[in-house]
Amino acid sequence: MFESLSKKLDRVFKNIRGQGVLTEKNMKESLQEIRVALLEADVNYKVVKQFVQDVQEAAVGQHVIDSVSPGQLIVKIVYDELVKLMGQENAPLVMAKTPPTIIMMVGLQGQGKTTSAGKLAAHLKKKGHRPLLVGADVYRPAAIKQLEVVAQQAGVEMFSLGEKADPVDTCVMARGEAQMRNCDVILLDTAGRLHVDEQMMGEVRRIHATVSPHEILFVANAMTGQDAVNSAKQFHAALPLSGVILTQMDGDARGGAAISLISVTGCPIKFVGTGEKLDALDAFHPRRMADQILGMGDIVSLVEKAQEVVDKEKAIKFQEKARKASWDLEDFLDQMQQVRKMGSFGDLMKKIPGMNKLMGPDMDFDEDELKYTEAIIRSMTIKERRNPNILNGSRRRRIAEGSGTDVPSVNRLLKDFEQSKKMIQQMMKGSKGKGMKMRGPMPPFMGR
């Protein structure tokens, strides 16, 4: 996400970094380039106009001190204004003092409402809650069946009165059902349409008036850009929206909807969908998003993901082996599997501060390389994994044939493995021999 905007802004900052001082001329040129970059990223033109004006006002009177370059100053100003534009801080869900908390999901058809309800249920379950998914969409064919499947995948409760029931009755009955099943959060999956119409709005208004939800979350597809912003405005005029869930943020390289929504609607973005799996729902943090847009990475999210999926016991054992350089290919295979739980390797690298600049605009990671590396190691016997020194020519030919690669690929993996052992041992020792703590698995090397 934001890949296109990040590249354009990086070019702006590179141009001004070459300037010795910040002048009215180069400031004006930079602001014009920022304006174009934001418009091309599909940010609402009114939002762009105000944003550029705010950056300009913040820059007026700023003095460039010796330790700060003009480019660094502009980056800081743009970063601060982006954070402000996107809501300053994460907006958490409002939870009822007396359960159950009722969360109403609204939005147009085809925006990912039902899937987002399932993702949010899975997210809440991890936080220790007992969600109840409620099928109140009686119009879309198989909508209730889809919600049943999603509920099963998320391992949460599901309730519906069927396709012939009145949606308002279904939502009312859900409260009693939640109490009987000991559920403390109710997620209402309401009906959508292909476009905003009075019948749909009338129904969601009746549900809102009857059950008084604690949260009304508008679900929109980030890839629809300004259409998502416009439909959010229409829903907000009919209902007191409390937040937004943006789906398919991983497929939106421009990111204009995310930047525009808060400013245009006044509603905070609470969550973003970043993939198809049920765990691909992230809380929206304006500062982290600004970090990503400006190529500063997102190390906080990376650590949080590692804490969520990594086996801490295995990480500690590997740390001890790494200090002594006694880890083998079997340990490495386990580490690689831990890393893959966290997502694609390329995405993980982009979360590391400074890595975007190190990688360059055209550099990308081929996930197939990891598959070949895994195939080579799996083609070895346990004895060979634990002692790679016994891998003579005939063994390497057998491994290459078994993994669908060739002998040079096996040789490269073994060479990289030995180099990695030395490098990681040095990292573990630290600059003054104090050692370092690993909070997750070591990233894998390319073995082909």
Question: What structural keywords apply?
Answer:
8-stranded mixed β-sheet; flat; 3 domains; 434 Repressor (Amino-terminal Domain); 55% helix; Four Helix Bundle (Hemerythrin (Met), subunit A); 8 strands; 20 helices; Rossmann fold; 448 residues; alpha/beta
* Count of strand segments: 8
Going by CATH, the homologous superfamily of the largest domain would be P-loop containing nucleotide triphosphate hydrolases
Helix coverage percent? 55-70%
Strand order of the largest sheet: 3-2-4-1-5-6-7-8
Proportion of residues in β-strands:
5-15%
Overall geometric form: flat
Order of helices and strands: HHHHEHEHEHEHEHEHEEHHHHHHHHHH
Report on this model:
With 448 residues, this protein is α/β, with parallel strands linked by helices. It folds into three domains: 3-85, SRP54, nucleotide-binding domain (Four Helix Bundle (Hemerythrin (Met), subunit A), Up-down Bundle); 101-296, P-loop containing nucleotide triphosphate hydrolases (Rossmann fold); 303-429, 434 Repressor (Amino-terminal Domain). 55% of the residues lie in helices and 9% in strands. The protein has helices at 3-17, 24-40, 45-59, 70-85, 113-126, 143-154, 167-180, 198-211, 226-238, 256-265, 286-293, 299-309, 312-324, 329-341, 345-350, 355-359, 367-378, 382-386, 393-403, 407-429; strands spanning 101-106, 131-135, 157-159, 185-189, 215-221, 243-247, 269-273, 281-283. β2, α6 (143-154) and β3 (157-159) form a beta-alpha-beta unit. It starts with a helix and ends in a 19-residue tail after the last helix. Residues 357-363 and 431-448 have low confidence and may be disordered.
